[in-house]
Amino acid sequence: MHDFCFTIPYGLLLIGGGFIGYMKKGSITSFAGGAGTGLLLILAGYLSLNAFHKKKTSSIAVVLQTVIAAALTLVMGQRYLLTQKIMPAGLVTVISALMTCFYVYKIATGGNKIPLKAAE
Where is the signal peptide (predicted)? Predict the structure, then answer.
């Protein structure tokens, strides 16, 4: 599975979560955090998708994705430990930890694999 297949929906999920936090609680911090990290992830996913169309891998995109997911895991994990609230801290922590593991796997295996037909 290619990283952009998960990264773009992950970014959209974060943007949506930030928007919901803003609508429910009026939290500008939630909106800014969700929108900022979500947009960066969508950008990284777009860079990775463009590289894939050119039959290449984008190391910068995968590293950016990994750093953002790991940072969200740490920040939201600490927030979960303080508040013990599943929404949103616990959910974002679990999803971000899974995404971090996926991105580390992609880095370890050399990024997106180009299909043989596309490589010719």
Answer: none
